[in-house]
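Quick note —
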Amino acid sequence: MSTIRVHLSERAWQDLVSLGEEERVSPGELLEQAVRYYLRERRERRQARRGLQESFGIWKDRDDLKTASTAVVEGLREEWGEREQRLGLA
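Predicted structure written out below.
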């Protein structure tokens, strides 16, 4: 394991200590958990972005679609937007 010096505001440090006391975990362990969570989230976002980039244009050569692929995609986007609104996410 490596050691790193971290500079936190007094407020952030006190919040970290308080949370650690509540959860019976050291501030160092909480910081390590936070870093692991942050790195996992960043990795997942990069993978999602890469997947979107790789999927761009995958329907352009489809001849089985009765409508232009852009119209199909726009329809899917509209349906998704409607779902988000119904769920209160938009």
